[in-house]
Design brief:
The protein is an alpha/beta fold. It has two domains: about 5-55; about 65-345, Rossmann fold, CATH 3.40.50. Helices cover about 35% and strands about 20% of the residues. The strands form three sheets. The protein has a nine-stranded mixed beta sheet, with helices on both faces. The chain has a three-stranded parallel beta sheet with strand order 2-1-3. α3 (about 65-70) packs across α4 (about 90-105). The protein is elongated.
Amino acid sequence: MKTVLITGANRGIGLQHTRVFAARGLRVFATTRSPSQSPELNALAASSAGSITVLAYEATDPEAASSIKTAVGDTPSPHSGQVYDPCCGSGGMFVQSEKFIEAHGGKIGDVSIYGQEANPTTWRLAAMNLAIRGIDFNLGREPGDTFTRNQHPDLRADFILANPPFNISDWWHGSLTGDPRWVYGDPPQGNANYAWLQHMLHHLKPTGRAGIVLANGSMSSSQNNEGAIRAAMVEADVVEVMVALPGQLFFNTQIPACLWFLVKQKTQRKGEVLFIDARKLATMISRVQSEFTDDVIERIAGTVAAWRGESDAGAYHDIAGFCRSVTLAEIAQHGHVLTPGRYVGAEEVEDNDEDFATKMQQLTEKLGEQMAKGAELDALIRQKLGGLGYEF
Protein backbone atom coordinates (compact mmCIF):
# COMPACT_ATOMS: atom_id res chain seq x y z
CA MET A 1 0.00 0.00 0.00
CA LYS A 2 1.28 3.43 -0.92
CA THR A 3 1.95 5.64 2.11
CA VAL A 4 1.79 9.45 2.32
CA LEU A 5 3.66 11.14 5.16
CA ILE A 6 2.56 14.74 5.82
CA THR A 7 5.14 16.62 7.88
CA GLY A 8 4.87 19.95 9.64
CA ALA A 9 1.12 19.37 10.14
CA ASN A 10 0.16 21.38 13.20
CA ARG A 11 -3.20 22.58 14.59
CA GLY A 12 -5.09 19.94 12.61
CA ILE A 13 -3.52 20.82 9.27
CA GLY A 14 -3.39 17.74 7.06
CA LEU A 15 -6.77 16.36 8.16
CA GLN A 16 -8.47 17.30 4.90
CA HIS A 17 -5.63 15.72 2.92
CA THR A 18 -5.80 12.60 5.10
CA ARG A 19 -9.43 12.16 4.05
CA VAL A 20 -8.65 12.74 0.39
CA PHE A 21 -5.82 10.21 0.31
CA ALA A 22 -7.70 7.66 2.40
CA ALA A 23 -10.57 7.77 -0.07
CA ARG A 24 -8.05 6.77 -2.74
CA GLY A 25 -6.85 3.74 -0.81
CA LEU A 26 -3.69 5.35 0.51
CA ARG A 27 -2.34 5.13 4.04
CA VAL A 28 -1.62 8.55 5.55
CA PHE A 29 0.45 9.61 8.54
CA ALA A 30 0.67 13.23 9.76
CA THR A 31 3.31 14.60 12.11
CA THR A 32 3.90 18.03 13.59
CA ARG A 33 7.61 17.74 12.91
CA SER A 34 9.24 18.97 9.73
CA PRO A 35 12.01 17.05 7.92
CA SER A 36 14.54 19.68 9.03
CA GLN A 37 13.56 19.05 12.66
CA SER A 38 13.63 15.28 12.38
CA PRO A 39 16.54 13.48 10.66
CA GLU A 40 14.73 10.16 11.14
CA LEU A 41 11.94 11.40 8.85
CA ASN A 42 14.51 12.10 6.15
CA ALA A 43 16.03 8.67 6.67
CA LEU A 44 12.59 7.04 6.49
CA ALA A 45 11.80 8.78 3.23
CA ALA A 46 15.20 7.97 1.76
CA SER A 47 14.98 4.27 2.60
CA SER A 48 11.41 3.77 1.43
CA ALA A 49 12.34 3.13 -2.21
CA GLY A 50 9.41 5.18 -3.41
CA SER A 51 6.78 3.53 -1.21
CA ILE A 52 6.44 6.69 0.89
CA THR A 53 5.59 10.10 -0.49
CA VAL A 54 6.60 12.97 1.79
CA LEU A 55 4.59 16.18 1.67
CA ALA A 56 6.17 18.92 3.78
CA TYR A 57 4.37 21.99 5.09
CA GLU A 58 6.50 25.06 5.41
CA ALA A 59 6.25 26.96 8.71
CA THR A 60 4.16 29.68 7.10
CA ASP A 61 1.67 27.42 5.33
CA PRO A 62 -1.22 27.18 5.30
CA GLU A 63 -2.06 28.61 8.71
CA ALA A 64 -0.19 31.86 8.30
CA ALA A 65 -1.61 32.23 4.82
CA SER A 66 -5.09 31.99 6.26
CA SER A 67 -4.25 34.62 8.85
CA ILE A 68 -2.72 36.88 6.21
CA LYS A 69 -5.81 36.75 4.05
CA THR A 70 -7.86 37.43 7.17
CA ALA A 71 -5.64 40.38 7.99
CA VAL A 72 -5.81 41.66 4.44
CA GLY A 73 -9.58 41.14 4.51
CA ASP A 74 -11.22 42.18 1.28
CA THR A 75 -8.35 44.43 0.22
CA PRO A 76 -7.28 43.73 -2.46
CA SER A 77 -10.28 41.70 -3.63
CA PRO A 78 -9.48 39.22 -6.43
CA HIS A 79 -12.88 38.66 -8.06
CA SER A 80 -11.33 38.01 -11.47
CA GLY A 81 -8.05 38.24 -13.33
CA GLN A 82 -4.58 36.90 -12.66
CA VAL A 83 -3.53 36.27 -9.06
CA TYR A 84 0.17 35.79 -8.32
CA ASP A 85 2.12 34.70 -5.25
CA PRO A 86 5.89 34.51 -5.82
CA CYS A 87 6.47 32.61 -2.55
CA CYS A 88 3.33 30.51 -2.45
CA GLY A 89 4.40 27.76 -0.04
CA SER A 90 1.73 25.07 -0.07
CA GLY A 91 -0.83 27.38 -1.71
CA GLY A 92 -2.64 28.62 1.38
CA MET A 93 -3.05 32.14 -0.01
CA PHE A 94 -4.64 30.81 -3.19
CA VAL A 95 -7.06 28.71 -1.15
CA GLN A 96 -8.07 31.77 0.85
CA SER A 97 -8.59 33.73 -2.38
CA GLU A 98 -10.81 30.92 -3.65
CA LYS A 99 -12.90 31.09 -0.47
CA PHE A 100 -13.24 34.85 -0.87
CA ILE A 101 -14.42 34.52 -4.46
CA GLU A 102 -17.00 31.89 -3.56
CA ALA A 103 -18.25 33.90 -0.57
CA HIS A 104 -18.88 36.88 -2.86
CA GLY A 105 -20.76 34.94 -5.53
CA GLY A 106 -17.90 34.72 -8.01
CA LYS A 107 -16.64 31.78 -10.05
CA ILE A 108 -13.32 30.10 -9.45
CA GLY A 109 -12.71 29.94 -13.20
CA ASP A 110 -12.69 33.73 -13.40
CA VAL A 111 -9.30 33.77 -11.66
CA SER A 112 -6.00 32.49 -13.05
CA ILE A 113 -3.52 31.29 -10.41
CA TYR A 114 0.23 31.82 -10.81
CA GLY A 115 2.77 30.92 -8.16
CA GLN A 116 6.32 29.88 -7.44
CA GLU A 117 7.98 27.93 -4.64
CA ALA A 118 11.61 26.94 -4.14
CA ASN A 119 11.11 23.88 -1.90
CA PRO A 120 10.37 20.85 -4.12
CA THR A 121 8.13 19.00 -1.64
CA THR A 122 6.21 22.14 -0.76
CA TRP A 123 5.85 22.93 -4.46
CA ARG A 124 4.26 19.50 -5.01
CA LEU A 125 2.01 20.03 -2.00
CA ALA A 126 0.83 23.35 -3.43
CA ALA A 127 -0.09 21.62 -6.67
CA MET A 128 -2.02 18.98 -4.75
CA ASN A 129 -3.69 21.59 -2.55
CA LEU A 130 -5.05 23.37 -5.62
CA ALA A 131 -5.83 20.27 -7.65
CA ILE A 132 -8.05 18.66 -5.01
CA ARG A 133 -10.12 21.87 -5.01
CA GLY A 134 -10.48 21.96 -8.77
CA ILE A 135 -8.46 25.17 -9.13
CA ASP A 136 -6.49 25.67 -12.34
CA PHE A 137 -2.97 26.84 -11.64
CA ASN A 138 0.46 27.51 -13.05
CA LEU A 139 3.27 27.04 -10.54
CA GLY A 140 5.99 27.05 -13.17
CA ARG A 141 7.74 24.15 -14.84
CA GLU A 142 9.64 23.28 -11.68
CA PRO A 143 10.38 24.51 -8.16
CA GLY A 144 12.92 27.30 -8.14
CA ASP A 145 14.20 30.40 -6.42
CA THR A 146 11.97 33.35 -7.34
CA PHE A 147 14.85 35.80 -7.71
CA THR A 148 17.33 33.71 -9.70
CA ARG A 149 14.97 31.29 -11.52
CA ASN A 150 11.86 33.34 -12.13
CA GLN A 151 9.24 30.96 -13.57
CA HIS A 152 6.93 33.74 -14.81
CA PRO A 153 9.19 36.46 -16.24
CA ASP A 154 6.52 37.87 -18.56
CA LEU A 155 3.61 37.75 -16.11
CA ARG A 156 1.86 41.00 -15.27
CA ALA A 157 -0.77 40.19 -12.67
CA ASP A 158 -3.97 41.91 -11.61
CA PHE A 159 -3.46 40.94 -7.97
CA ILE A 160 -0.51 39.85 -5.89
CA LEU A 161 -1.09 38.40 -2.41
CA ALA A 162 2.06 37.28 -0.66
CA ASN A 163 3.69 36.53 2.67
CA PRO A 164 7.42 36.46 1.88
CA PRO A 165 9.79 35.10 4.52
CA PHE A 166 10.85 37.98 6.74
CA ASN A 167 14.36 39.44 6.58
CA ILE A 168 16.03 36.53 4.77
CA SER A 169 19.76 37.12 4.50
CA ASP A 170 20.95 34.37 2.13
CA TRP A 171 18.95 35.33 -0.94
CA TRP A 172 21.54 37.21 -3.01
CA HIS A 173 23.33 35.93 -6.11
CA GLY A 174 25.82 37.79 -8.23
CA SER A 175 23.61 37.46 -11.30
CA LEU A 176 21.07 39.80 -9.66
CA THR A 177 23.31 42.85 -9.94
CA GLY A 178 21.59 45.44 -12.13
CA ASP A 179 18.44 43.30 -12.45
CA PRO A 180 15.65 45.21 -14.28
CA ARG A 181 13.34 44.54 -11.34
CA TRP A 182 15.35 46.90 -9.13
CA VAL A 183 13.71 50.05 -10.48
CA TYR A 184 13.97 51.92 -7.17
CA GLY A 185 17.45 50.80 -6.16
CA ASP A 186 19.54 47.69 -5.58
CA PRO A 187 18.25 45.78 -2.52
CA PRO A 188 20.81 45.06 0.21
CA GLN A 189 22.45 41.70 -0.16
CA GLY A 190 21.78 40.86 3.49
CA ASN A 191 18.00 41.39 3.51
CA ALA A 192 15.45 40.48 0.82
CA ASN A 193 12.53 42.63 2.02
CA TYR A 194 12.95 45.30 -0.63
CA ALA A 195 13.78 42.70 -3.25
CA TRP A 196 10.35 41.17 -2.66
CA LEU A 197 8.60 44.54 -2.83
CA GLN A 198 10.28 45.47 -6.11
CA HIS A 199 9.82 42.00 -7.60
CA MET A 200 6.08 42.25 -6.98
CA LEU A 201 5.82 45.75 -8.38
CA HIS A 202 7.62 44.50 -11.48
CA HIS A 203 4.98 41.81 -11.98
CA LEU A 204 1.93 44.06 -11.58
CA LYS A 205 -0.19 45.27 -14.47
CA PRO A 206 -0.51 49.07 -14.76
CA THR A 207 -3.91 48.68 -13.08
CA GLY A 208 -2.75 45.95 -10.68
CA ARG A 209 -2.65 45.96 -6.91
CA ALA A 210 -0.48 44.05 -4.42
CA GLY A 211 -0.97 43.15 -0.75
CA ILE A 212 2.22 42.05 0.99
CA VAL A 213 3.00 41.09 4.59
CA LEU A 214 6.43 42.06 5.88
CA ALA A 215 8.19 42.57 9.20
CA ASN A 216 7.66 45.92 10.90
CA GLY A 217 11.26 46.91 10.30
CA SER A 218 10.59 47.27 6.59
CA MET A 219 8.60 50.46 7.28
CA SER A 220 11.47 52.35 8.86
CA SER A 221 14.82 50.68 8.19
CA SER A 222 17.48 52.87 6.60
CA GLN A 223 20.27 50.32 6.51
CA ASN A 224 22.13 49.41 3.33
CA ASN A 225 20.06 51.48 0.89
CA GLU A 226 16.65 50.40 2.22
CA GLY A 227 15.75 53.95 3.22
CA ALA A 228 16.68 55.25 -0.23
CA ILE A 229 14.60 52.55 -1.95
CA ARG A 230 11.61 53.29 0.27
CA ALA A 231 11.92 57.03 -0.42
CA ALA A 232 12.02 56.37 -4.17
CA MET A 233 8.93 54.17 -3.96
CA VAL A 234 7.04 56.79 -1.95
CA GLU A 235 7.99 59.60 -4.33
CA ALA A 236 6.96 57.44 -7.30
CA ASP A 237 3.53 57.18 -5.61
CA VAL A 238 3.39 53.38 -5.75
CA VAL A 239 2.70 52.98 -2.02
CA GLU A 240 -1.06 53.13 -1.49
CA VAL A 241 -1.88 51.89 2.04
CA MET A 242 0.17 50.90 5.08
CA VAL A 243 -1.38 48.88 7.92
CA ALA A 244 0.35 48.16 11.24
CA LEU A 245 -0.67 44.75 12.61
CA PRO A 246 -0.63 43.49 16.21
CA GLY A 247 1.83 40.94 17.49
CA GLN A 248 0.86 37.27 17.91
CA LEU A 249 -1.41 37.42 14.87
CA PHE A 250 0.42 34.68 12.96
CA PHE A 251 0.93 31.10 14.03
CA ASN A 252 4.59 30.91 13.09
CA THR A 253 5.92 34.13 14.62
CA GLN A 254 5.19 36.49 17.50
CA ILE A 255 6.86 39.39 15.67
CA PRO A 256 4.53 42.29 14.82
CA ALA A 257 4.10 42.63 11.09
CA CYS A 258 2.68 45.14 8.66
CA LEU A 259 0.78 45.19 5.38
CA TRP A 260 2.04 47.01 2.30
CA PHE A 261 -0.49 47.79 -0.43
CA LEU A 262 1.23 48.73 -3.68
CA VAL A 263 -0.09 49.92 -7.04
CA LYS A 264 1.54 50.66 -10.37
CA GLN A 265 -0.66 53.66 -11.16
CA LYS A 266 -3.04 55.37 -8.74
CA THR A 267 -6.40 56.41 -10.12
CA GLN A 268 -7.58 57.95 -6.85
CA ARG A 269 -5.79 59.79 -4.04
CA LYS A 270 -2.70 60.58 -6.06
CA GLY A 271 0.06 62.00 -3.90
CA GLU A 272 -1.38 60.50 -0.70
CA VAL A 273 -0.87 57.38 1.41
CA LEU A 274 -3.45 55.93 3.80
CA PHE A 275 -2.07 54.87 7.18
CA ILE A 276 -4.03 52.49 9.42
CA ASP A 277 -2.90 51.52 12.92
CA ALA A 278 -4.56 48.20 13.79
CA ARG A 279 -2.15 47.17 16.54
CA LYS A 280 -4.76 47.40 19.29
CA LEU A 281 -7.67 45.86 17.39
CA ALA A 282 -6.88 42.15 17.81
CA THR A 283 -8.68 39.80 20.17
CA MET A 284 -6.65 37.24 22.14
CA ILE A 285 -7.97 33.72 21.52
CA SER A 286 -5.27 32.03 23.59
CA ARG A 287 -2.29 32.97 25.69
CA VAL A 288 -0.09 33.21 22.62
CA GLN A 289 -2.49 33.82 19.74
CA SER A 290 -4.61 36.77 18.61
CA GLU A 291 -6.96 37.29 15.71
CA PHE A 292 -9.05 39.92 13.95
CA THR A 293 -12.81 39.57 14.34
CA ASP A 294 -15.04 39.94 11.30
CA ASP A 295 -16.06 43.40 12.52
CA VAL A 296 -12.44 44.54 12.65
CA ILE A 297 -11.75 43.17 9.17
CA GLU A 298 -14.82 44.95 7.84
CA ARG A 299 -13.73 48.17 9.53
CA ILE A 300 -10.27 48.05 7.94
CA ALA A 301 -11.55 47.03 4.51
CA GLY A 302 -14.35 49.60 4.67
CA THR A 303 -11.91 52.35 5.60
CA VAL A 304 -9.69 51.52 2.63
CA ALA A 305 -12.69 51.33 0.28
CA ALA A 306 -14.00 54.70 1.47
CA TRP A 307 -10.55 56.28 1.12
CA ARG A 308 -10.34 54.98 -2.44
CA GLY A 309 -13.76 56.45 -3.20
CA GLU A 310 -15.34 53.12 -4.09
CA SER A 311 -19.07 53.10 -4.70
CA ASP A 312 -21.33 52.43 -1.70
CA ALA A 313 -18.34 52.71 0.65
CA GLY A 314 -19.40 56.02 2.20
CA ALA A 315 -17.28 59.06 2.89
CA TYR A 316 -13.78 58.75 4.30
CA HIS A 317 -12.76 60.60 7.46
CA ASP A 318 -9.48 60.62 9.37
CA ILE A 319 -9.90 59.01 12.80
CA ALA A 320 -7.34 59.91 15.45
CA GLY A 321 -5.43 56.84 16.59
CA PHE A 322 -6.77 54.67 13.76
CA CYS A 323 -6.39 56.11 10.25
CA ARG A 324 -5.14 59.16 8.43
CA SER A 325 -4.51 60.15 4.82
CA VAL A 326 -1.08 61.77 4.51
CA THR A 327 0.52 63.69 1.66
CA LEU A 328 3.85 62.67 0.19
CA ALA A 329 5.31 65.99 1.30
CA GLU A 330 4.54 65.23 4.95
CA ILE A 331 5.96 61.73 4.61
CA ALA A 332 9.15 63.25 3.22
CA GLN A 333 9.36 65.49 6.29
CA HIS A 334 9.45 62.32 8.40
CA GLY A 335 12.30 60.83 6.38
CA HIS A 336 9.95 58.60 4.36
CA VAL A 337 9.28 56.42 7.40
CA LEU A 338 6.01 54.56 6.83
CA THR A 339 5.08 53.54 10.38
CA PRO A 340 1.35 54.32 10.82
CA GLY A 341 1.70 55.25 14.49
CA ARG A 342 3.83 58.22 13.46
CA TYR A 343 0.97 59.73 11.45
CA VAL A 344 -2.41 58.69 12.90
CA GLY A 345 -1.80 60.31 16.28
CA ALA A 346 -3.31 59.31 19.61
CA GLU A 347 -6.82 58.06 20.05
CA GLU A 348 -9.20 60.71 21.30
CA VAL A 349 -10.18 60.34 24.95
CA GLU A 350 -13.74 61.15 25.88
CA ASP A 351 -13.97 64.27 28.06
CA ASN A 352 -16.45 64.14 30.94
CA ASP A 353 -16.53 67.98 31.12
CA GLU A 354 -15.10 68.14 34.65
CA ASP A 355 -12.78 71.07 35.23
CA PHE A 356 -9.18 70.59 36.25
CA ALA A 357 -9.67 71.68 39.86
CA THR A 358 -12.46 69.16 40.40
CA LYS A 359 -10.45 66.33 38.88
CA MET A 360 -7.40 67.18 41.00
CA GLN A 361 -9.49 67.26 44.17
CA GLN A 362 -10.91 63.81 43.41
CA LEU A 363 -7.50 62.37 42.60
CA THR A 364 -5.91 63.89 45.71
CA GLU A 365 -8.62 62.45 47.96
CA LYS A 366 -8.18 59.02 46.41
CA LEU A 367 -4.40 59.23 46.83
CA GLY A 368 -4.83 60.14 50.49
CA GLU A 369 -7.08 57.14 51.05
CA GLN A 370 -4.57 54.82 49.40
CA MET A 371 -1.66 56.23 51.45
CA ALA A 372 -3.61 55.77 54.68
CA LYS A 373 -4.39 52.18 53.72
CA GLY A 374 -0.73 51.65 52.94
CA ALA A 375 0.27 52.91 56.40
CA GLU A 376 -2.20 50.50 58.02
CA LEU A 377 -0.70 47.60 56.07
CA ASP A 378 2.85 48.65 57.04
CA ALA A 379 1.85 48.66 60.75
CA LEU A 380 0.22 45.24 60.41
CA ILE A 381 3.32 43.79 58.78
CA ARG A 382 5.54 45.16 61.56
CA GLN A 383 3.21 43.63 64.17
CA LYS A 384 3.25 40.20 62.53
CA LEU A 385 7.02 40.18 62.11
CA GLY A 386 7.45 41.32 65.73
CA GLY A 387 5.38 38.41 66.92
CA LEU A 388 7.83 36.13 65.13
CA GLY A 389 10.79 37.82 66.78
CA TYR A 390 11.77 39.93 63.75
CA GLU A 391 11.41 43.50 64.89
CA PHE A 392 12.77 46.43 62.88
